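User: I've been trying to design a sequence by hand for this structure and keep getting stuck. Would you show me what you'd pick, starting by listing the structure so we're on the same page?

Assistant: Good idea, let's start from the same input. This is the structure you sent:
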């Protein structure tokens, strides 16, 4: 038997333990980072209203029918299922879909998916959003295809649509305050208020005049203006009226908002921080009271 000197063993143990402890604390730090991304992604998921269109019976499983003048769109499954959802997507594929409206196969998405607003979201936010989606329950269920009339069922033509309807990307206005810019970002970006409150042209693009109301809302209803310089309705609301309506759903006249706005109240503004609601109210009020 060889005589073992305890000193070298201890030395070797330490040598072996140091990287082990290092790996452990590094993976704990990674797990915290991942946890933070998921928490941040959850809030981004809410302010972006993904649930309004992608959750019907099961979270993220799609199947929501969206009726438009071009036919009926049926939202796809975006749960992290590898076969039926987006579980196998890379980060890059997700960011490209959200920002450019292009599928991993390079096909154009229909603008019923409001990626023209999501295009304004920073990459870091989109990646946090993906981390949150990746942590949800995968649903192994296919969704039926859209029911669109010719020529609107031709994805190839959407390349032309994009050329005609891609506006300037959102940018902060250096002459405005931080809350104003946050409100402007939410309305034009993730919370996509512009998408329903702006009139559409014949091929479904948003018209340049801005949020002056839309005769043909997503549920066939009239969408009131959020830009009402004639002061015929919304233009008369004060900031508190706007905040209250977005948090509670009640207008200054005591009526509750309905139609497609009820999904926005439930899934988007109803889950916003007070600060974000105030930012939107500040921005909308200032648009109407220049
Ligand atoms: C107004 C309804 C609407 C909202 C809101 C919406 N989507 Fe969609 N989404 C759709 C429709 C419709 C499609 C299908 C588009 C197509 O087939 O061209 C789609 C497609 C997608 C796709 C592509 C899926 C695939 O299988 O190719 C992804 C990913 C996606 N949405 C993620 C999101 C996320 C994340 C959010 C929230 C930030 C969101 N969507 C919000 C309607 C919506
Ligand atoms: C899916 C379409 C849709 C989206 C997205 C949407 N709205 Fe609406 N909004 C409506 C409809 C429809 C009404 C009318 C509801 C009613 O009167 O019953 C409405 C009404 C309102 C009103 C009441 C205005 C008035 O004069 O009565 C306000 C305020 C409002 N929306 C703010 C917002 C804000 C802020 C956002 C973004 C966070 C937003 N909306 C996103 C469809 C939408």
């Amino acid at each position: 038997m060889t005589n073992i000197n305890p000193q070298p063993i201890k030395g070797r143990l330490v040598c072996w333990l140091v990287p082990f402890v290092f790996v452990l604390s590094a993976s704990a730090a990674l797990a915290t980072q991942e946890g933070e991304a998921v928490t941040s992604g959850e809030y981004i998921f809410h302010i972006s209203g993904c649930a309004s269109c992608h959750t019907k019976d099961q979270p993220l499983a799609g199947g929501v029918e969206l009726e438009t003048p071009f036919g009926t769109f049926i939202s796809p499954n975006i749960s992290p299922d590898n076969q039926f959802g987006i579980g196998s997507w890379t980060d890059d594929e997700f960011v490209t879909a959200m920002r450019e409206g292009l599928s991993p196969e390079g096909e154009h998405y229909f603008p019923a998916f409001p990626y023209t607003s999501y295009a304004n979201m920073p990459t870091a936010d989109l990646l946090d959003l993906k981390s949150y989606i990746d942590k949800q329950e995968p649903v192994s269920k296919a969704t039926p295809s859209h029911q669109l009339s010719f020529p609107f069922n031709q994805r190839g033509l959407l390349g032309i649509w994009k050329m005609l309807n891609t506006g300037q990307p959102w940018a902060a206005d250096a002459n405005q305050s931080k809350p104003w810019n946050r409100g402007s970002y939410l309305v034009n970006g993730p919370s996509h208020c512009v998408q329903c409150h702006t009139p559409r042209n014949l091929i479904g693009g948003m018209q340049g005049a801005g949020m002056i109301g839309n005769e043909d809302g997503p549920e066939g209803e009239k969408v009131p203006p959020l830009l009402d310089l004639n002061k015929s309705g919304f233009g008369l609301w004060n900031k508190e009226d706007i905040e209250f309506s977005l948090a509670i759903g009640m207008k200054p006249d005591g009526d509750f908002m309905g139609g497609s706005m009820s999904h926005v109240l439930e899934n988007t503004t109803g889950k916003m921080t007070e600060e974000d609601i105030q930012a939107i109210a500040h921005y909308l009020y200032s648009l109407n009271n220049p």
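That's my pick for every position. To get oriented when you compare it with your attempt: The longest helix spans residues 6-47. The longest strand covers residues 65-68.
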